Amino acid sequence: MSATMYYEADANPTLVGRRKVAVLGFGSQGHAHALNLKDSGVDVAVGLRPGSRRVSTAADAGLRVVEPAEAAEWADLIMVLVPDQFQQSLYAEAIAPNLEKGDALFFAHGFNIHFGYVAPPQDVDVAMVAPKGPGHLVRRQYQAGSGVPALLAIHQDASGGAKDLALSYAHGIGATRAGVIETTFKAETETDLFGEQVILCGGIDEMIRAAFETLTEAGYEPEMAYFEVLHELKLIVDLLFEGGLAWMRYSVSDTAEYGDVTRGPRIVTEQTRETMRQILAEIQSGAFAREWMAEVAAGTPNLLAARRAVSEHQVEVVGRELRAMMPFLVAKTPEDDQ
Ligand code: NAD
Ligand code: MG
Predict the structure, then answer these.
(1) Which of 80, 94, 101, 185 fits a disulfide with 123 by CB distance 3.0 to 4.6 angstroms?
(2) What residues does ligand 1 touch, defined as CB less than 6 Å away?
(3) Which atom of ligand 1 is closest in space to residue 192's alpha carbon?
(4) Is the pTM of this model over 0.70?
């Protein structure tokens, strides 16, 4: 099975141009969507809570900022770009009372629609336009005359024109310049959660700490361990990003490649693969979503405890010191972004 792709010529830019677009949220994705649409000539308003520290950022960028409910009332296309765990309450309080027949409700991730935390009425279009990159890249590529690829999916086509409208929106944020891949809310949501749990975040995070602890427990210096198991990951990921497995294996030494092909299968065993299948099943059944929403309802106690614990881990303590010695690397901490 191969995915359907759309490009510039497949999109009609005037469709989104005839809409009043509310972008709810002004974080990573929100700022990029709102500014790209505005530069594409689209009538945009940003919906933010009055106390939000993003209000002045959005206003300084020349955007009209109103409260989320007011934005939703004014708009006939609403793009939801607040964090996934707040979309259910934002929908109930600010969006649902202001949805009218013919409106369109857009998302950049399928979590809330797919798992049923947001259930829009049948007379509105529900679609996803999800850039496959962080917001700063979506903005920067647009300004450079290029774009970041995006996923497109239709959950509900009330008007008969949901896909054309979603493609027009994708055009407005620059995504059709790169290419738009058609998928479903189910596939996008389940693969996204699986990727972040087993490799991108969960898998890598745990591998780094296990490898670091193995070296330091064997008596090696923590600084040596840090460089080997964390810092150098970037070199490898860049090679994978540029040319896949073959380019990475070609670029490392033959010794490293031989270690890769003979030792890798001893790290990721049949038991690891079985666990991956179990994690996928928990995602597909909705068990992970229910667990996460219960954690949110309780005030994210486990997440906060895990954040504190990791910041005290030796790989983090030594990492902060070493990064400070590398001015070429623009060291960052979560506090810098508050
Ligand atoms: P973010 O955390 O960067 O920004 C969230 C924004 O929402 C902030 O402006 C915040 O002030 C605002 N906000 C929070 N709660 C709110 C509320 N109750 N009412 C109004 N505004 C509120 O979020 P993000 O990373 O841009 O993610 C937004 C959506 O885009 C998510 O569905 C995410 O899955 C999706 N997405 C993100 C990326 C990415 O790289 N960050 C990529 C593709 C898709
Ligand atoms: Mg993702």
Answers:
(1) 101
(2) 24-30, 48-49, 52, 54, 68, 81-84, 86, 90, 108-109, 130-131, 134-135
(3) 34
(4) yes
